[in-house]
Amino acid sequence: MQPKELRAKAHKLDPLVIIGAKGLTDEVMAEIDRALTAHELVKVRASLDREDRDAAYKRICEHTGARPVQQVGKVFVLYRKNPEKP
């Protein structure tokens, strides 16, 4: 799927995972991984400062194998194809 298509689909989505004051914990990372498996296209809201958000976005993509689609302010959009879905 093309990035433009993914951004269009993500526009109507609500964030499924919120990164709070404790930051990007192992539990939050696991929840993002589960959300990607279930939904493929996921929005994540991060209540972190700019530098920490950028680092978290990169770390999430590296850890989960997700493709970065878009980052607007505190919201990340991630995509990972689930091979078990048609």
What's the pLDDT, averaged over the residues?
94
Cross-sheet strand order for the largest sheet: 1-2-4-3
Number of helices: 3
Structural class: alpha+beta
Largest sheet: 4 strands, mixed
Which term fits the overall shape? Answer: globular
- Counting DSSP E segments of at least 2 residues, the number of strands comes to 4
CATH level-3 fold name: Translation Initiation Factor IF3
CATH first level: which class? Alpha Beta
Share of β-strand residues: 15-25%
What is the architecture at the second tier of CATH?
2-Layer Sandwich
- Uncertain runs: none
Provide the CATH superfamily.
Answer: YhbY-like
Backbone CA Rg: 12 Å
Helix content: 40-55%
End-to-end C-alpha gap: 13 Å
The number of distinct structural domains comes to 1
User: Helix and strand string, N-terminal first?
Assistant: HEHEHEE
Give a written overview of the molecule:
This protein has 86 residues and is of the alpha+beta class. The protein has a single domain, classed as 2-Layer Sandwich (Translation Initiation Factor IF3). The protein has helices at residues 3-11, 26-39, 50-64; strands spanning 17-19, 41-46, 67-72, 75-79. A four-stranded mixed β-sheet has the order 1-2-4-3, with helices on both faces. It starts with a helix and ends in a 7-residue tail after the last strand. The mean pLDDT is 94.
Topology:
Layout: H1 3-11, E1 17-19, H2 26-39, E2 41-46, H3 50-64, E3 67-72, E4 75-79
Concise synopsis of the structure shown:
The protein is α+β, with helices and mostly antiparallel strands. Helix content is 44%, strand content 23%. The chain is built from three helices and four strands, in the order αβαβαββ.
